[in-house]
Amino acid sequence: MRPRSGARVRTIPLALVPALVLALATGCRDTALESQADAVCAAVDAERFDEALARSETGSGAVGAGRRIAECRCIASLSLGDRAGCTALLDPLLRAPGAGDWVPHPVLTKLMLRTWQAAGALEPAAALATRAALRHRDDLDLLQLELMLRSTQQDEGALLSELEARAGDGLDALPQRLVLAVAYGRRGQHAEAIRALGERAPALDQPLATAWYESRIQAQAATGDLDAVQRTFATWQAAGADPIDLAARYALRLSTDQLDDPQHPKLDLLRAAIATQDRLTDRNIVWGLHRRLIAELLAAGRPEEALAAYDAAVDVVDLSGVSREELVRAVRRTDDPPAPDARATIVFALPEALRGGQLALSPDADAAPDSAYRRLSIADRRELVVASRRGPHPRRWVVRDAEGRVRASGSFWPEPGETRTITPSLRPSAPASPRAADVLATRGATTPARRPGDGRRRVIAILPDCGDWRLVQYLRARGELPFHDHLLEQGRRAVLESRPAFTAAALQSLVWPARPRARATLDWVHDLGLELAGLETVGSNPFAFLGFVLPERPNLFETLGARSLVTANMLLAHGRIDAGRHAEIVGPDGHHRTLETQAAYRPLSPRELERFPALAHDRDARRFAETIAAELDAALRIIGAGEIDFLFLRLEALDLVTHAHFGALDGAGQDDGAGPLLDTYRYIDARLAELDRALDRDDWLVYLSDHGIRSSMQHEEDAIFAVLGDGVPAGRVPGQPALRGVPRTLAAMFGIETDWPETGAAPWLERRRESARFAEVPR
Amino acid sequence: MRMAKHRMGRPRRPGRALVARVTAVVLIVGGCRPAPAPDPLDRIPALLIEGPALMRLLERLASLTDTPAARVSARLHTRLAGCPEVVARFPDPLDARAPFDALDALQCRATPSSVVTSHPDDAARSIDPTVPREPAPATRPEPVLLARLDDARSGHAGALQWPIGRAGRLALTLDVDANGGLALAGRLVPDDAMGPAGFLVPSPTAPRPAVVDAGSALLHLHLRSATGTGLARLIPKEGQGDRLFALKSRLLEGALLEGTLELALLEPAPANAVPLAAIVLHHRGAAAIAAALAEALAQLRHTWSLEPSPRVFATRSGSTRTGGCYANLPLLPELAPCWVVTDEALVLGYRAEAVAAVLGSSTPASPPPQRAGESLPRVSAAAPSDAHVPARDTDVPAAAPATRLVVDLDRMRTLDTRLTARPVAGEATRAARPTIGARATRLGDLYDRLELSATAGADGIALSGLLRARR
Question: B262 φ, ψ to 5°?
Answer without folding.
Answer: -125, 140
